[in-house]
Amino acid sequence: MNSKLEELIASLKEAGPSLAQNMRPADAALYTGLSESTLAKLRMRHNRQSGPSFLKISGCVVYRRGDLDRWMDSHAVNPSA
What we know:
alpha+beta, about 50% helix, Helix-turn-helix domain-containing protein
């Protein structure tokens, strides 16, 4: 039983930021597979319509996992179209 629990804990640690509800840009970059630079460019005023939603709390940028998921889903390409 302990080995199964240890395996679960190890897999959760490996998953890292993907399990967090709120992520800083570095974690959001890992989660989406984009670079931090790309996310920063998408946050710029003229790109805000095309990038994922984000929060700015006391000057800190925070992404919600659900917002990232919805944004990525909105960019899905149907290969048969």
